[in-house]
Specification:
The complex is a heterodimer of chains A (1128) and B (476).
Chain A lengths: L6 E5 L22 H12 L19 H5 L12 H6 L18 H12 L8 E5 L32 H12 L10 H13 L5 H9 L5 H11 L1 H14 L18 H13 L3 H14 L4 H4 L18 H24 L18 H11 L2 E2 L3 E2 L3 H38 L14 E20 L5 E2 L1 E5 L15 E4 L25 E2 L5 E19 L11 E9 L5 E6 L8 H7 L5 H6 L11 E20 L10 E2 L1 E6 L15 E3 L26 E2 L4 E18 L15 E9 L6 E5 L8 H11 L4 H23 L5 E2 L3 E2 L6 E4 L7 E5 L22 H12 L5 H16 L20 H13 L4 H9 L2 H4 L6 H6 L12 E2 L2 H11 L15 E6 L1 E6 L24 H4 L18 H9 L1 H18 L3 H13 L5 H13 L2 H10 L5 E2 L1
Antiparallel strand pairs in A: 1-2, 3-22, 4-21, 5-10, 5-11, 6-9, 7-10, 8-10, 11-12, 13-18, 13-19, 14-17, 15-18, 16-18, 19-20, 23-24, 25-28, 26-27
Chain B lengths: L7 H10 L4 H8 L24 E6 L6 H4 L4 H5 L12 E2 L2 E6 L6 E4 L4 E4 L12 E7 L6 H10 L9 H9 L9 E4 L25 E2 L17 H21 L4 H24 L6 H7 L6 H18 L4 E5 L19 H25 L6 E6 L3 E2 L2 E3 L7 E2 L3 E7 L6 E3 L1 E2 L6 E3 L4 H12 L8 E3 L2 E3 L15
Parallel strand pairs in B: 1-9, 1-10, 6-15, 7-8, 7-9
Antiparallel strand pairs in B: 2-3, 3-12, 4-5, 6-14, 10-14, 11-13, 16-17, 18-19
Helix pairs in contact in B: 1-2, 7-8, 10-11
The chains are: A alpha+beta (1128), B alpha/beta (476).
Chain lengths: 1128, 476
Amino acid sequence: MRVEVSLTILCLMLGQADYTTAADPAGSATRISFEKQIAPLLETHCIRCHSPNNRKGELSLETIVDLKENGYIAPGDPAGSYLIDVVTSQDGQPAEMPKEGDALSIEEIGLLKLWIEQGADWPENVLVQEKSKADKSWWSLQPLGEVSPPTPNGLRQSWQNNPIDAFVQGKLSEQNLTPNGPADRRTLIRRLTYDLTGLPPTPAEIEDFQNETDPQAYEKLIDRLLASPRYGERWGRHWLDVVRFGESNGFERNVIINDLWPFRDYVIRSINEDRPMDQFIREHLAGDIIAKGKPDQEIGAAFLVAGPYDNVGNQDAAAAAQIRANTIDEMIRASGEAFLGLTLGCARCHDHKFDPILQKDYYSWYATFAGVRHGSRVWATTEQQQTHAARLAPLNKRKNDLTRQQSELKKAIAQRLWESNDEWSRPAVEPKQNEETFSEITAKFLRFSISQTNQSQPCLDELEVYGPAGPSNLALSSTGSKATASSLLPGYPIHQIEHLNDGKHGNTHSWISKESTGWAQIEFPDTVEVNRVVWGRDRAGQYQDRLALEYQIEVSVDGKVWNEVAHGRDRKPVNQEHLTQRGLTSGALTIEKKWTRPPVDRKGTTEKFDPVEAKFVRLICESQDMNPASSSGFRIDEFEIWSAGPEPKNVALKINGGQAFGKAREIKDFPGAYGPHLAIDGKPGERFLAAENDLTIELATTTNIDRVTFSSARGEPTSEHRKFVFVADYRIEVSMDGKTWREVAHGRDRKPVNDAHRKHRIARATKPTPEEESELNHISQELAKVTREIRELPPLKTAWLGSRQPAPGPFHLFLGGSPQKKGAEVIPASLTTLDQSAPKYELATNHSAADRRLELANWITSPENPLTARVLANRVWQHHFGTGIVATPNDFGYMGSRPTHPELLDWLAHQLHENNWRLKPLHKLILMSQTYRQSSLFREEAARIDGDARFLWRFPPRRLSAEEIRDTMLTISGQLDDNMGGPGFRLYEYQQDNVATYVPLDEHGPETYRRAVYHQNARASVVDLMTEFDQPDCAFSTPQRAETTTPLQALTMLNHSFTVDMAQALAERVQREAGDESKAQISRAFALCYGRQPTKSEVTDCKELIDKHSLTALCRVLLNTSELIYVQ
Amino acid sequence: MTPFDITRRSFLNNITTGLAGVGLADLLAQGLLAEENPWQAGRGMTHHAPKAKRVLQIFCPGAASHLDLWEHKPSLEKYHGKPLPGEENFVSFQGKNGNLMQSPWKFAPAGESGKMWTSMLPHMSKHADDIAFIHSMHSKTNTHGPGCVFMNTGHATEGFPAAGAWASYALGTANENLPTYVAISDIRGEPPNGKANWSNGFLPARHQAIMMSDHRPIRNITRPASINSEEEADTRELLSQLNRQFAEANQGESDLRARIAAYELSGRMQLSAPEVSDLTRESASTHKAYGTQDENKLKAAYAKNCLLARRLLERDVRYVNLFCASRASGVDGLLNWDAHKTLKSDYERHCPIFDQPTAALLTDLKQSGLLEDTLILWTTEFGRMPTHQAGTAGRDHNPDGFTCWMMGAGIKGGVSYGATDEFGRRAEVNPTTVWDFYATVLQLLGFDHERLTWYHNGLDRRITDVHGHVIEDILS
């Protein structure tokens, strides 16, 4: 850390106690002064983490309360005080505390011990608190000064017209510096054109300007450039950096965002239209509120969700809460830095250490943004939305009608089949009374299990059991039989288990289970012969609910082995719903009888068949076990094909010459990750993941085979997991030529693997009549048609505006930044940081989330808020001169740099106000100054005083930005496509397999020849030229681009095909415009690239390269030169 | 302000915009380097005498299980199938957890230190006595992407410089023909959050890692096929001449000279990179030791990257990130160490890829003497749960306890520092943070981590944030 944390004591002079003169009980040492000796020590080492708003380890050292309550100190007994232990180094180990910063010295520990020994006196009126380095008197927090330009000595004649020059000269004089003379016209037009449009001037424009005699020529040039749509593309890009605009969500998944570009267009459009910046900023924070139904302005609020956020999902509730807090934190930081130049994020865990920003200020913004969520939503005018709804409504109605017809017809088919179903031989169950008869059997126990009722938990009012011996009910408790149940409904004496066999009928004497399924059981006093059961839900006939629909009756002699004696499956369903629930749409029981073999087994399924000659064997999946409607997505870890004969061999194996085919799921950055070869590699750990419905094995030679075995979870202890999705229905086919196939085995006679599979099979077996079939087909066609019409209806546009939720309060600050530790309540309010210079507001908790953001937006853009205009004026200055008056444009606080020209900054901020927050007048004012117009000539003696020209003794030259370099290459080669707006182009290939991957393109086609501001900038993607030349990653706000020089730039500029393509195009253009003569070609190429004529020696050197190689070779050289990418 | 008093910040910006030796030489020539500071970034100077001159950081993304690879827990065997005391039915990243699950593999003592070693890493066991394990690492996130970025940059959000970028910034280059910092990604793809793991963050772009691997050379390193070598030479010559003339006409701009040097370095890199990547220069026995011809193509590819890493270190590349495995795929645990459902079969796939080549690389470094001033780091983003995930035979994410290790320059071998609790659920003895880890790395490189800073958006940033204690117990 450059700056030591500075702390102070807050002494509340409530009492008049004099600590220094108190009696010394120990009598051996000087009385310790808590205020002078102990408090500073706690402040230096402890308070940062142990304050009321952080309270690490549940300990605050603001007062003595926590120390005492948690037993850290035993007054009078330092040896018995835990506080001393934790700050003392023991056994050569560093002291446990402090976790951050320097350990306590021996002397300091000695002081602490003495203090405890003397009774640990901590006066009540002394609070130990951390204080920020800067307070509210910090320069940037003061109201804008009423400044007028100075009148420095030695102001040149030409420098007397523009107040800016007077401010600048004032500082230059203080430093004993003098400014340069004016730059030449070629330099000026090049500088100005790049500055305002990010593009080079054309040779014709340069020539015209050089020859212009109009004294207003320079001013007219500024006006022309400010009016150019290219201006918004250039200055919009500056702003997009500031607001960390990025078109993927970042973090692990980093999924691309395809509808955030409207925000980019909004920024460019607003800058071109010179929209007042206060309005612009208000729209960023609250466009969705103030411009509801006006998409062009509403989109400004996409700012809130234009940053990175973690969408990976987390089942751990504490981690999920932390992620959400991080997401809001991102909005707070971005807003604070962009609009106010304040690093609010530093106040998340504790009060800001450097600036007067309280932790409660931070959480007041947290409350303000709490309703904002990331995502897309409809982005259209109210009228568009109404029109769309009006067109959609009749289509949706038709679709619903058809769907209903279809459903009714299907029901009718099912109904008929049900009625004709002879498998359901017994009548449906009745609420009053039902009888079950079965063959005589010996029983000590009889259990009635209910797996489904028509409604609520099952109820039996009586369970009667009879035997061949006669008409007496063997179950009655009076005969010694005992009733038990799986569960009991608590709190209802009338529904307890003893009513099951008490011989009394009706609801008030019944058993009800606590769970939705359950069983009731009779234990007879001795084994008996039984053959009949009578049961009912309510024989009084009052209640019809809780009726057992699906049930089973079992008997047992030992209570362990049970035999089923009766069930409800052969009863008719009670109603249509019951029918549907059974999943029976046809003679299900008949079908089920055909399922004789065990279900497929993910750990290994074998099919044997008569020996057959085969060159090809294939597995065709008819339904997949997690989703029987699908026949793809299954996995195979091994597929074995065994030769017939005495020594069978797995001929599918790759090492035995087998080859596997089948379309697999693909990942581009790791081809073959799920390929069919994994099914014949002899290793079960990795699996083929089918993208279609087949896996085909070609054998080395035609072989006589009689068996296949295949699996998806061989050897896996948890084979039921989704990870091992397998085939449910399949067939095995063989072929000699790979064209004609013969089925040798299938799994259709296997039992289903799960209920969904069972229902799927039954549904598939449904056979409507030809009339019904034709009707169904007709409905399907109509449905498809209307669905297509709906799909083809131009959808309402969506944009990445995020959703808004009510997010009602109350809100709390999070102690130490942890959402798990709520601190004091906070309300949405203006920053206390500015309460001495800007207006204040506080919102009660009943204000809506919209109110909260709107109020903040209005507060930030209030003309009395000194930061907003200062920060903005500084950004404008920075982009004209390379460095701001404050060199840290996002940080006007203590850690930021101080303004070189504070009065000028305030004067510029006033200008912004006076011009109704419009930027163009401010640009013009700056550009018209002599300060801007001076040359960039380097002067040794001036550089010795001010190497970076912060005082502007010269115009600071600069390298072009990444976008300017690419745009320049496209422009001079005549390839630039200047279409504005719309979805961006990509210089990478986008891949997604759970997470997103961005692979830079080796070739850039003409579809990418638009201005770089229209590139779809995904986070954490490398795109050669752009990344190499310091285009930021937009993980967070980038107020100022770096200008680095690396060998990778050289490699990219020399070798990437884009440069070669541009060199070729430039050569063609030069040839077209200058003819075949090489001197003319060189002259034209220099004019296009540098806006100047070549020197004689340059002509000689360049001609040599053309003659020896080609004009293209020369163009490649020129595109790589420093002169091309430097502005002076 | 005295004439020669340039601010520290502008000095740094100045020197880092140039290349090593270039921007600096300028400043020296101009007498701008008043010797008032004992240390300046990028000059190969250090705060104190370094033990290590270069670093190899092996990273196994996907959260490689500390319990199955490095930290043996007898209690997992004893209480296998029993609930985790105090945390029955707890929910973590992917959902509910089941009961305790022992490692599918046996552990046995290895080396003179007798370190309990898994049977899955037989080759690595030979280095048991050279490794200093840190068994008490813990992370602040349970998500792969932020976890990887946290482990590599000291911050869980993107945009911060990786350790290698800090080393590049601190030390500058030691080889004018090769990049200072190289990231070797796995043939299976990039790790979670990709390039953020070797980003320069807010440091100048020259400090980002250059990506190269056996399967993917440095991007744009080869000249276009349409241009022959003579044209290339003439092109470079004319370019250099034009750039020199421009720089001479603009005497004050040091970055114009830096640019000339950058082109020269790019030319040298074009020559050196193919040389360093040319593994055919290695002996057959070396290839065999690493396993570069292994029939397991993934293992062979990683083995080649191990060999490439050694060749880079030999040529004084300062910092090499070597990745073994990649990102989260559609099937977890397939492409990296993220064994949620099928720990056994997943690790039976990953361990053999990692084991022999890594062990061979370490042996090679030791035999050649390079290990004496090379620091080896083995890292992953967090650990795994001692329980199995409900309904599976895998383990969920565990940010509260995991293992990393160090070896080589300045490191005491055969040491196990810190520990998780009885079951491996949480770091318990000497809990160690990522910041402690890098404070120690910087210490070995000759730096006081609190003094290696860069101003960014309001703070003088460090890789150790506002934390970090050097782990003295593992230093030799």
